[in-house]
Amino acid sequence: MAKGRGKYKLNPETLLYETERVPLLTRLSWILGFLASSLAMAFVWFWLITSVFGIEPPKTTILKKRNAAWTSRIEQMGRRLDETEAILEGLRMRDDEIYRNIFGMSEIAPEVRNAGFGGTNRYAYLDVISDNSKLKKTALRLDLLTKKTFVQSKSFDDVAALSRRAGDMASCIPLIPPVLPDPSKYRLTSPFGYRSDPISGQTKFHSGIDFAMDQGNPIYATGDGVIKEVKYELGGYGNSVLVDHGFGYETRYAHMHIIYVGEGMKVKRGECLGESGKTGKVTGPHLHYEVFYRGDHVNPMNYVDMEMSAEEYRTMVDKVASESKNVLNRPFNRKR
Question: Against a cut of 0.70, is the pTM above it?
Fold first, then answer.
């Protein structure tokens, strides 16, 4: 019978039960053996439960449920991001192709719309996650859409600010002829497009339209604007004026004899810019007239109202001249 750290054993000589001491190492070996066998049994049972019977531990089950719940939320967020991205793309198309186009504003460059956030690593906390992780991809998409939304909002602010000047736009678009629409004063010689160059004889692109007329006929601004450039050249355009009308429009008046305006000067539609001539590369006196829209040459005949009556034109010109601050534009200083 065991008791304490030893056990009782009958002594055959004294016929008494005496305590027999068990060595410490023996006791330790028993304890270690018991623990080892217990662990082995636990491992066997764990293996049987998980691998043979397919029963997961409670903690694993809880973690899997939590993971499934978060995965479902991330997938739902991904679907909402898809919808938001589609809506934002629709806004971008309307912005670039309609709103900004109407007011002559350039499209926002793709690298600006799709730019990420610079500076420090905003996603350092996700470095432990694989790049293919749904969580990391969703975080990146959310930030990118936030940036796109900001850019789009700023663009709409710019369009709204410009739309408040929509009334000014009507007077800025180059819609009237650059010369008095009196057929007895001019004739249209070279249209917009490819033609045989009158000097070289080669087929070249003609970037404007030509009004053949005597030297000294008044040349008028076809829309409100600011004189962007005045040039005096021996060849090329000769004496020329470039007017920036805003809203993406510019016009050029070339081969002039005399120029009445200077760079930076504001002009009104119908205000006299100078007189026709034959400076630069020409075969005779005429006005070469160009229209630009957003930096590209466009056909001036799509804008010029050649049906405008000479009387209506003269009335407009005289009214503008009487209001002009440019002394050279006053009626008694100009040829009619």
Answer: no
Helix (H) or strand (E) holding 267: strand 266-267
Q: Which two tokens stand for residue 84?
A: 């938001």
**Residue matched to tokens 């008494």:** 16
Locate tokens 């996650």: which residue? 129
Average pLDDT, the chain: 84
Cβ atoms within 10 Å, residue 320: 19
Measuring CA to CA, which residue among 237, 242, 267 is closest to residue 252? 242
Amino acid at residue number 323: E
Task: Give CA–CA dist 32/45, Å, rounded.
Answer: 20
Q: Are residues 95 and 152 in contact, defined by beta-carbon separation less than 8 angstroms? A: yes
State both tokens at 90.
Answer: 């629709």
For 3-17, the pLDDT digits (tens) are: 445 566 776 777 676
CB-CB neighbours of 144 under 10 Å: 17
225-230 LR contacts (CB < 8 Å, sep 24+) = 225/172, 225/249, 225/250, 225/251, 225/266, 225/267, 226/264, 226/265, 226/266, 226/267, 227/261, 227/262, 227/263, 227/264, 227/265, 227/266, 227/267, 228/263, 229/263, 230/259, 230/261, 230/262, 230/263
The class that CATH gives domain 172-333 is mainly beta
* 188, β-bridge pairs: 211
DSSP-derived 3-state class of residue 104 = coil
